[in-house]
Amino acid sequence: MKRTIFAAVCAASFAALAHAEDAPKLPDAKASDPKTLGLMQGSPPAPDKIVRFENSYRFPATRWSFSHMRELTPTANVWRGEAQAHALKRAIRPDLERVAFKTTNGVDMTFGDLFDKTYADGLIVLHKGRIVYERYGGALTPERPHMAMSVTKSFVGLLAAMAVAAGKLDDKALVVKYLPELKDTAYGDATVRDVMDMTVGVKYSENYADPNAEIWSYARAGGMIAAPADYKGARNFYDYLKTLQKEGEHDKAFAYKTVNAETLAWILKRATGKSLSDLLSTEIWRKLGAENDAYFLVDSTGVEAGGGGLNMALRDMARFGEMIRNGGSFNGQQIVPRAVVDDLFKGADKAKFAKAGFATLPGWSYHNMWWVSHNDHGAIAARGIHGQVIYIDPAAKMVIARFGSHPIAANGFNDPISLPAYAAMANALK
Amino acid sequence: MKRTIFAAVCAASFAALAHAEDAPKLPDAKASDPKTLGLMQGSPPAPDKIVRFENSYRFPATRWSFSHMRELTPTANVWRGEAQAHALKRAIRPDLERVAFKTTNGVDMTFGDLFDKTYADGLIVLHKGRIVYERYGGALTPERPHMAMSVTKSFVGLLAAMAVAAGKLDDKALVVKYLPELKDTAYGDATVRDVMDMTVGVKYSENYADPNAEIWSYARAGGMIAAPADYKGARNFYDYLKTLQKEGEHDKAFAYKTVNAETLAWILKRATGKSLSDLLSTEIWRKLGAENDAYFLVDSTGVEAGGGGLNMALRDMARFGEMIRNGGSFNGQQIVPRAVVDDLFKGADKAKFAKAGFATLPGWSYHNMWWVSHNDHGAIAARGIHGQVIYIDPAAKMVIARFGSHPIAANGFNDPISLPAYAAMANALK
């Protein structure tokens, strides 16, 4: 198997978390800026400056590729519709750069430091629906979709919750009601609810540091990373899901496993009769007044990567977050039923969540594929590796949308900086 | 080499042209409709109904794939900008279905027959800028970009002519002024003008019926068709162009060779410092009020396929044609200089064109990668295999935009029906 950024940096990540003082020396945000490096500059670029699919997941190539995924791999469009885009009001506050906070590790920083410290490619703060802070870097521009990684899951979870509310999907039913082909897998006796809250007992490891972890089999099957010439395994997501076996019991503990999101996306397609891209377009994207089309990475059979393949422009991700903050109402219409959004904020069982051992997220829960803080601001988040986030703080009427290409995948590395930064911003705006 | 639709149907095409009475029995438009066939229906589709990159160029898979290219291969976006789309006025005339004509082969038909007879996926007729006829079929919908094949070349030729007019490109200069790396190739002593009018003497065959023709090497290098496991040749367009050797003399005869368009696209990128997708977006697409983003297929190094890789929505292609009909003015602005458009209509040397032996196009010429009829209506066209066309008839104030997935690549098979149909429509509207 080709080494990828996932393997390379997640190994680094685990090491860094265990021994912060031995953190690997990596070029900082300025040194790894794709323009500084000359990545994909010129016609053609120098041979060692060309980002190809095969090397696209390796840092620092990721600093370019996460803003150019469709140029590297097949994708399905999420159409914005034909209406004029919703106009996001602007009320930029330069003073917000100076909002001060202390990292979890005790370092003094300002909000202005956050961008480069976390290798951000784009960062927007909305307050009461107005853009108060907006910045782009790396290879990102306002109109360019960026890889949202597992933020994708929160879109899939929301669409599933909407289908439940509409009576098209029964979350108490067994998965096999919709996907009988999963009868002899871990999902054979799991409920749709187990899948939506990721409490499925399935033998599958998301440990990026282990080259034999199932996350690699999943990604290879879906064409997200290159497969070796002699590869004999599954060649699409669905064939891979059919191989998963049970381990442990369902409904006992939260266990973050991307295959659950992929299974939920499949259930959703069976239940609604629509592809994931059509569903997102018709239910949300066209109503949101999105400025730009979004897109999903697809596997070799055209199936969208529901676990981590959504790409969208930053302002559109911010609009989506603002819609959630507004109880599902945005751009002059109720896009998501209020009760569905209210239920997201309620979260799920904190005791089950605690068993997963996310050190940077004490007291949180995971519900409908959203991360629920249960903090005194009632914040929730959609989170993806390498620093993708939608952070919604109802008390502060604040939404933060952030894309990044941090060399280390796990957000456990970002959180000690970014979570205190978000909290400080919320307090400054409140 | 895997057999592709190009090879399969073009063999059929040549056979059909030579022995029309022995034309191969192929399913007609209704029988090959992707919905009728169940192509890509269901989640997942039945195994034999899945269109993958490897089989996507084989008829009838092409009836689906030409409307879904980005789901099969990497692409670069051509951004429409953030403005509201230009509103095309509608004045639909149902009577136009009954416009009668006689095919070149003497068969009586109506305009309503044209769609299915030529396996059209979409067809728009504009009269004085208003939509008087609009129809979609197969896998195409109004918002979905369709493969434009060699219509792409006319965009590249126009952008090059605009660069000449702007003083950024010298069409009298040698190609090597811009691309010194082509010194030892057929292009070593050719001028930019030779490339723009395709009068380059280069050993390269576009004969689809010959599996050893260079068109296959070109397409394999650019990743447009699958390469065999033991493939040792060029892996991108530019490396392939560097292998082309001279044959015959320049500036003596028109010879339709896709590599010229690819070379011109490269020259253009050197001369302007922009990628082809950025150039098309900034110079034309954003100004046109396009409804949808367009896109280019790209090779493994991210280089856009300037010879045939542009995909766009049908109405946007119609808007583009209307802009040309209006002397470069559209959507409230002069997008292309009037002199550049006027020069397109003048065409090039008919005697040089005649040497290429296009039986269905007597008296035509080829200039700046546009097909110029020199007929009494002064019509010009952008043309791509399998039935893609923009046909502009100034006398009738008419623009026809058409996408298709005809099983036979060569337009020599469509022309006996479609050219009389366009002429009859022009007379009906005039």
Model description:
2 copies of one chain form a homodimer. Chain A has 430 residues and is an alpha+beta fold. Chain A folds into 2 domains: 5-72, no CATH class; 73-430, Beta-lactamase (3-Layer(aba) Sandwich). The first copy, chain A, is built from 14 helices and 15 strands. The first copy, chain A, has helices at 5-18, 34-37, 62-65, 111-117, 151-165, 192-196, 214-221, 237-241, 258-272, 276-288, 314-325, 338-346, 350-354, 415-429; strands at 75-78, 100-102, 108-110, 120-127, 130-136, 146-147, 294-297, 310-312, 329-330, 333-334, 365-367, 370-372, 380-384, 388-393, 398-404. In chain A, strands 5-4-15-14-13-12-11 form a 7-stranded antiparallel β-sheet, with helices on both faces. In chain A, strands 1-7-8-6 form a 4-stranded antiparallel β-sheet. In chain A, β9 and β10 (333-334) form a beta hairpin. In chain A, α5 packs parallel to α9 and α5 crosses α12. The radius of gyration of chain A is 20 Å and the shape is globular. Residues 1-22 of chain A have low confidence and may be disordered. The interface between A and B is large, with 39 and 39 residues.
Question: In a nutshell, what does this entry contain?
Answer:
The structure is a homodimer of 430-residue chains. Helices cover 30% and strands 14% of the residues of chain A.
